[in-house]
């Protein structure tokens, strides 16, 4: 579909998109599982972009220059989304792409990296604390493992047998079999329970027994039911960090330093978005599928 060329206003940047990562939130939008009433049509999915900075809006303060390779987080609404040849974004949502990365690699970092950053900030655990991560082989879980390890946390993570080496390589101190019995396995290794959980696998109540009394489980997609033993389910929304440019730029630096890895499962032409969605929904993708423009 053709949409009008977006024009940046004050405080905005226009990016020529070269790559957009495919995330579960995109498939949820496409499947009609999100309330989009009142939004313009067509609906354009996508929360991660990488490309070239093409235009700086009038009066916009930025250290970036036209022609720079950049990456950004997009909060999609209506026709505003990452699956597009061009997108206009607040300057605070854009930073330089990591040196040495191509657009596909850079596009895998913003949304999931910032979600992991928000999860850890929400928990606020001190170095030496024990963090459990579910869905550790996925994009969010993988970044949570790496960022937590970089901050001196002891990380216990779940993994299928085929993913054990991957998760261990990301920096997990203890890797346990994933599944409904993960919490029991955690308690066998940490009898007092872990200090917090990043629940990328959306285990919810099933992972709560792994947490010490009064601990916190960070959840995605809004789960916040009451817990037992004072355990709190704390939902997070990455849109709250969509304009935290310094945090995004720190992720860039960590990628350049090797503390964070950029994992591309496969890059597909944008016309193959349906196939990318089918593959993501089928499960088993490690790293991110990326659409190229």
Tags for this model:
alpha/beta
Question: Can you describe what's shown?
Answer:
It is a single chain. This protein is of the alpha/beta class and 293 residues long. The protein has eight helices and 13 strands. Strands 1, 2, 3, 4, 5, 12 and 13 form a seven-stranded mixed sheet that branches. A six-stranded parallel sheet has the order 8-7-6-9-10-11, sandwiched between helices. The radius of gyration is 19 Å and the shape is globular. The mean pLDDT is 97.
Which SSEs are present, and which pair or pack?
Blueprint: E1 12-21, H1 24-30, E2 48-56, E3 69-73, E4 86-90, E5 94-96, H2 103-107, H3 110-123, E6 130-134, H4 139-150, E7 154-159, H5 164-170, E8 174-177, H6 182-189, E9 194-199, E10 211-219, E11 232-235, H7 245-257, E12 264-269, H8 273-282, E13 288-292
Parallel strand pairs: 6-7, 6-9, 7-8, 9-10, 10-11, 12-13
Antiparallel strand pairs: 1-2, 1-4, 1-13, 2-3, 3-5
Amino-to-carboxy terminus distance = 14 Å
- Give the radius of gyration: 19 Å
Mean pLDDT: 97
> Which class best fits the helix and strand makeup?
alpha/beta
Largest sheet: 7 strands, mixed
Q: How do the helices and strands follow one another from N- to C-terminus?
A: EHEEEEHHEHEHEHEEEHEHE
User: Total strand count, please?
Assistant: 13
Please state roughly what percent of the residues sit in beta strands, choosing from under 5%, 5-15%, 15-25%, 25-35%, 35-45% or over 45%: 25-35%
CA-based shape: globular
- Range of helix content: 25-40%
Number of helices: 8
Low-confidence stretches: none
